[in-house]
Model the fold of this input.
Amino acid sequence: MTSMPAPERLGFHLKRAEQALNAAKNAVLRPAGLTVPQYAALLHLEENPGISAAALARACGVTPPTMNTVLKNLQEQGLIERTPHEWHKNILETRLTPKGERVMAAADSGAVRVERGLAAAFSDEERELLVALLSRCVEHLEKPQPEP
Done:
């Protein structure tokens, strides 16, 4: 079996797009003192106050140890607070602090500008097709693959 050159591999193009998006978001998040993973965590926390670290890791597509590092950094910055769950004392609920809400609002305006700019590069039909094609990629990659 011969190897495929990188430019012919779909994964190469998906990774380049992800890297470009992350670079653009990092640039607009930097003034707020956030990284893309920290922003993603704050975004999900804003939408799901009290979510556990494990559920947050799944939502952000990272491992639980990675999420614990992100949360530790956010807590040290005073952007989140973690308190024991009312019934499950081994589970910590995570919420934005008032400072976290302010930082999130500032960071989100930049991230939304990046997303809107990207969306504007496509017609409505192209955006719908792109979303459908990317969804198909995810569906294919998440289903069990036959052993070689």
